[in-house]
Amino acid sequence: xxxxxxxxxxxxxxxxxxxxxxxxxxxxxxxxxxxxxxxxxxxxxxxxxxxxxxxxxxxxxxxxxxxxxxxxxxxxxxxxxxxxxxxxxxxxxxxxxxxxxxxxxxxxxxxxxxxxxxxxxxxxxxxxxxxxxxxx
Length: 136
Fold this sequence. Notes:
Structural class: mainly alpha
Number of domains: 1
Largest sheet: none
Number of strands: 0
Oligomer: single chain
Distance between the termini: 21 Å
Helix content: over 70%
Order of helices and strands: HHHHHHH
Number of helices: 7
Shape: elongated
């Protein structure tokens, strides 16, 4: 198990910056088999999104703005996307800047956990699989 990739992917999908895609590409360049790497990165990334979802579900708006320092604009953009597109917007939780606040908003709005996990996993798996395919 590539724990470095797992934790990089986990941290990258919380509200902290990270570069799991770069590490995945590096591991592929080293000659590692793509399938395990894509699965490890996906599981780590989904777990990080689940942590962000839980912060939204368990916290309150004042805590998010004060402690997590999420910008008003990022949250407003995520709320707008979530309201406009509904649950399918979670397919884009992998996007930079918008993805993490989108997961937080899903928690704040009490999005069903099952749909959250399915849609976020599909989007993140698709991103990592595309990267692995693109360099193969």
